[in-house]
Structures are given as structure tokens and as C-alpha cells.
Design a protein that fits this description.
The complex is a heterodimer.
Chain A lengths: L2 E10 L2 E11 L4 E5 L6 H8 L7 E6 L10 H4 E4 L11 H11 L5 H9 L15 H13 L5 E5 L7 H16 L3 E6 L2 H7 L2 E6 L2 E7 H7 L4 E5 L3 H10 L3 E4 L5 E4 L3 H10 L6 E5 L3 H8 L13
Parallel strand pairs in A: 3-7, 3-8, 5-6, 6-7
Antiparallel strand pairs in A: 1-2, 1-4, 8-9, 10-12, 10-13, 11-12
Chain B lengths: L3 H14 L1 H28 L5 H6 L2 H6 L2 H22 L1 H8 L3 H37 L10 H13 L2 H13 L2 H21 L2 H6 L5 H10 L12 H25 L3
Helix pairs in contact in B: 1-7, 2-5, 2-7, 5-6, 5-7, 5-9, 5-10, 7-8, 7-9, 7-13, 8-12, 9-10, 9-13, 12-13
Classes of the chains: A alpha/beta, B mainly alpha.
């Protein structure tokens, strides 16, 4: 099921939270939704789920707005804020009313409790759960209807490394099964290992809609670090070969525009000594920081 | 499409799974019955001092049901919390992702609250009546039997009408999204009309007061009893007034709920 936004806009009073977003999220890959806090990620998720009403534009799932889906729980599983399941109810009670609401059999409750590893604590009050356990409970709720689309807002929050690996593997498995998987995060390192495609938003605007590989490559900052006692001679050779040079703090060279093998071969051809040759790929973080330099909302009264 | 009974079932599960709901319902019944018994006992203890006209005018049915006022408070809070509790915890977002058609959510909640309150209200009213009549009889006072038509009608009407203000409280909860605000609101609705009757010109008492929600339901329940002042509206008209108030509050709640961001 494709999620399609067209000119999606949401104002809260004078504050523009989402500003003319247009995108298509396709099934079969994990799509990362990236943006700093207050960039409009969560608002966009709430708009997709029909919880908030757009000021302008529209967003549809398989061509229909969320509110018109026949069996929403079988079509979309959402994890919004892990704390929303909390209260005085036990984990099992929480899932029971939710299963009832979505027309899912009670047997699914025990299945998803097993799936997320909460079967042993299902009789405990969810209010006493750690953040990691709350996340697992929220994920269990999202899985109840075995949905074709998964929409996870910051699912890795509060999880330990083992839990993060678990979520990542699960999301990738769902995508491989042909489902539509959207995951938002500001843990960009994690996103790099989880998502195949990214939508980057800052201040409610779409900044990039591209594959992770392209996103990191396109970003400036990918370079080859070269340490050589013949740096002067090598440097001029590299410049003639089309490299962009800058000096590192420790006397190394940062060479942009040339691959590590190309730099090594060039040095060897001219008999120059190379002590270190390291390809440095720009991290998602640095790519992101560069793209959103104007997009970050620093004011403390940040947008929801 | 997810059928409506499914939404009703989930609202039922949500409400009765809470221990606080069960505790409040139990307290409502215990306090109502206890209060009625206490009032009946005080009446019985002082019966010897009553003059002849006081004894003649004593009306055992109405006197046995006054204690229910305390119970009302607990029932109202359950109605309010069925709405505001979801906003406080953020659970409303889960509810609406599972059931995105909001009118159904509101309707299902109203049905569940009304059903629970009607059943509890009938049990409570029946228990208050039986306990009080037993106490009246033991003091040699005039007492009534449930087999008596007036008594049965009064008990049934007061019982069923226990649902009126909790459902209005639910609607106010959706409108205000604040537990304290909605509780204050519904108390204002119950208490303001009689108060207004005391300070406003007689025109209010003659032409408006009987259309107020509390006045209309009191009249249905006990207006027909011997000794009560002549009611100004027929029982059917009063039932319609009660229904119109409930519909007005639920309608307002729906209009706001439908448009608002969750």
C-alpha cells in the first residue's frame, strides 16, 4: 500500500508544522523519516493516521484517507508515543481492548505478546514498565492486526542495543515481505543501518527524498584521508588528477573527488610513500546536518 | 468495515477492566444504600416526636430514595473519566487509530456508560428502597411495597434516570477534555437550575424551570407521587425533555470531537 502525500500542510495557530509535503512511500523497503525534533515528523504521522486534520493538501493510503479504511487495524499498525498505552491497566488488558476495537481475535493478543517477548510480564501494570518494555508493548499493539503498513515513530527510543537490533531486523523482515514500512528517527546512525530510503524533513519541508546510499554520497564530506611524508609532491599530483585538497589538523591530507584506490595507484606510479590511506564516507549525521542547516528550529518553543 | 458492536465491545472492555471503575461503582452502591438507611433510621428515631400532620404527609417512597445523591457523584466521575482519561493518557490516539470513525467511538462510549449506569442505578435504587422500607416498618411507620404501582414506577424511573447525568458528563468530558472542568460543569448543570429558581423572578419558575434537566427527571421519577406538588409537564413531555438534553450534549460533543485534532 503506497502512502501518498500531496501538498500536505498543517498549521497550529501561527506555527507552520508541516509545509506543503509531497511524497510517495512505497512498499517493499524500509523508509526512514528523518528530521530534528520539531521538524514535523510526528505531525506528519498523525496526519497520515487521520488524528490531525490537514490545513491544506491530503494524504492517502492506497488511495484512501485513513478515516475511510475498511479495517484500519489490518491495514496500518502504528506506534506513536510509547507512553500512550499506559495507565492502570495490565499489558494484557491494554492489548485486549485494542484488539476488540480493531475486531481482532483475543488469541492475537497472546501471539503478539510472545512476538515482542512480553508474555511473562503481560499480567503486570503497563504503568510500571520501563521505556524499553513500553516500546515493546506499543509494537505489540501495532502488530495486532498483522498490518500491511507499519508506521513507527521513534521505535528505538529507550531500547538497549539488543532491542534495537530486534526492531531493525523486524522492520527489514516486514519490508522484505512486501509491506510498507515507515520509521522515523533522529538516531541517524541507526537509520543508516535500518532504512533503504529516506525522507528528510526540516521545518516541515521536504529536504530530500532519496536512497540512503545516494543521500550519504551526495553529501559533501566524503573524502580519502592520506598520510604521506611526500605530501607536497603527492598533493600537486592529486590536484592535477582532479582531487580537491584540504589539510587535516595532523598534517594529513583530505582528498575529495577521488577514490582511495585512485589515490594509491597514483602514488605508486610516481614512487611516493603513503603511510595511511583511509576512505571516509560522510555519515548520515553530517549529510543531514548540512542539508538541514536552515531547517533546524532552534527556538525553544519548537513546533510540535 | 469494522462493525459498530465491535467498537461497543472494546469500550466495554476498556471501562470494566479498570479496577477504579469497579471500586467506584461499589462505593456508589454502598454509600447510597448506607445513606438511605441512615436517613430512614433518623426518621424512625424521631418518629415519636412527629405531629399528626407530619405523620399523615409522610411519603415513604420519596424518603427512601434521597440517599442516592451521594452515589451520583461517583457515577458522574466514571462518565467524565471515560472521556477525559483518554486525553490525559494519550490513549485517545490509539482509540482513534483502531476506530477512525469518531461518531462511532462517541456513540459506543455513550451506550456503554448508559448501560452500566442503568443497571447499577436500578440495583442501587432497588436496594435503597428495600432497606429503607424495612427500617420504616420496624419503627411502625407507614411503608411501601415494590408491588405497589407507584413504588415500582418510582424505583424503575429513578434507576433508569441514573444514566442521564453520567452520559451528559461523558459529553462534557469530550467537550472540555479536563476531568476537573467537566465535573464542575455537570455539577453546575445539576445545581444551578434550583439555585436560579430561588433568585430569579417567578416567571423563571413558571416557564423555564421545568425544562431544566434535573427538574424534568425528578418530576418523572417522583412527581406523580401522592403529596407531591402538581407536576407542570406530562410524564411523556418530561421524558422528551430529558432525551433532548442528552441529545444536545452528545451532539455538541460529536461536532467538536469530529473536527478536533486528537
Amino acid at each position: 500500500m503506497t502512502i501518498q502525500a500531496r501538498g500536505l500542510t498543517k498549521h497550529f495557530g501561527d506555527c507552520v508544522a508541516v509545509d506543503g509535503l509531497s511524497f510517495d512511500i512505497r512498499p517493499g523497503v524500509v523508509t526512514g523519516f528523518l528530521g530534528p525534533n520539531g521538524s514535523g515528523k510526528s505531525t506528519t504521522m498523525r496526519l497520515i493516521l487521520g488524528l490531525d486534520h490537514p490545513t491544506a493538501g491530503s494524504v492517502t493510503l492506497g488511495g484512501r484517507p485513513y478515516r475511510e479504511l475498511d479495517a484500519p487495524m489490518r491495514e496500518v499498525g502504528a506506534l506513536l508515543d510509547a507512553r500512550t498505552l499506559h495507565g492502570k491497566r495490565t499489558a494484557r488488558q491494554q492489548l485486549r481492548w485494542f484488539a476488540d476495537a480493531g475486531g481482532q481475535p483475543r488469541t492475537r493478543v497472546e501471539e503478539v505478546l510472545d512476538d515482542v517477548g512480553l508474555a511473562d510480564v503481560a499480567g503486570r501494570r503497563a504503568g510500571a514498565f520501563s521505556l524499553g518494555m513500553s516500546q515493546r508493548l506499543g509494537i505489540a499493539a501495532a502488530l495486532l492486526g498483522d498490518p500491511a503498513t507499519l508506521l513507527f515513530d521513534e521505535p528505538m527510543n529507550g531500547l538497549d542495543p539488543e532491542g534495537i537490533r530486534w526492531v531493525r531486523t523486524m522492520l527489514q523482515r516486514f519490508a522484505a515481505e512486501g509491506r510498507t514500512v515507515v520509521v522515523s528517527s533522529h538516531l541517524m546512525h541507526e537509520m543508516q543501518e535500518t532504512a533503504e530510503h529516506v525522507l528528510v524533513i526540516g521545518r516541515g519541508r521536504l529536504i530530500a527524498d532519496t536512497s540512503i546510499a545516494e543521500f550519504t554520497q551526495r553529501a559533501a564530506g566524503s573524502h580519502v584521508r592520506v598520510v604521506s611524508p611526500d605530501a607536497g609532491e603527492l598533493g600537486s599530483l592529486l590536484e592535477r588528477a582532479g582531487g580537491r585538497l584540504s589539510a587535516g589538523e595532523d598534517g594529513s591530507l583530505a582528498v575529495g573527488g577521488l577514490s582511495a584506490p585512485a589515490v594509491g595507484d597514483l602514488a605508486a606510479e610516481h614512487g611516493l610513500r603513503v603511510h595511511e590511506l583511509t576512505p571516509r564516507r560522510a555519515s548520515l549525521e553530517s549529510a543531514f546536518m548540512e542539508l538541514t542547516e536552515d531547517g533546524v528550529e532552534y527556538r525553544p518553543q519548537a513546533v510540535r | 468495515m469494522t462493525p459498530f458492536p465491535v467498537t461497543v465491545r472494546s469500550e466495554w472492555t476498556k471501562l470494566v477492566a479498570l479496577r477504579s471503575t469497579k471500586i467506584q461503582l461499589a462505593l456508589a452502591v454502598l454509600l447510597g444504600v448506607g445513606m438511605s438507611a441512615l436517613l430512614a433510621w433518623i426518621l424512625g428515631m424521631t418518629y415519636d416526636d412527629w405531629d399528626a400532620s407530619g405523620r399523615r404527609d409522610f411519603e415513604p417512597i420519596g424518603a427512601s430514595l434521597i440517599g442516592g445523591i451521594l452515589s451520583t457523584i461517583f457515577l458522574l466521575v466514571i462518565g467524565v473519566k471515560a472521556a477525559t482519561g483518554e486525553y490525559a493518557s494519550g490513549m485517545i490516539r490509539l482509540t482513534l487509530t483502531a476506530s477512525p470513525r469518531r461518531r462511532r467511538v462517541l456513540g459506543a462510549k455513550a451506550i456503554v456508560v448508559a448501560a452500566v449506569m442503568t443497571v447499577v442505578g436500578i440495583l442501587l435504587t432497588g436496594a435503597m428502597f428495600l432497606v429503607s422500607q424495612a427500617i420504616f416498618a420496624s419503627y411502625g411507620m407507614q411503608s411501601a411495597s415494590l408491588l405497589d404501582g407507584d413504588a415500582l414506577r418510582a424505583v424503575a424511573a429513578v434507576g433508569v434516570l441514573s444514566a442521564q447525568f453520567p452520559v451528559i458528563a461523558l459529553a462534557l468530558g469530550f467537550l472540555l477534555r479536563s476531568t476537573a472542568g467537566a465535573i464542575i460543569g455537570v455539577f453546575a448543570l445539576i445545581l444551578a437550575p434550583p439555585f436560579a429558581g430561588g433568585v430569579l423572578p417567578a416567571w423563571y419558575a413558571d416557564h423555564v424551570a421545568m425544562y431544566m434537566p434535573g427538574a424534568a427527571s425528578d418530576a418523572i421519577a417522583i412527581g406523580q407521587l401522592a403529596g407531591a406538588t402538581e407536576p407542570m409537564l406530562s410524564p411523556v413531555a418530561r421524558a422528551l425533555v430529558v432525551a433532548a438534553w442528552i441529545a444536545a450534549f452528545l451532539g455538541a460533543a460529536w461536532a467538536v470531537f469530529e473536527r478536533r485534532d486528537a
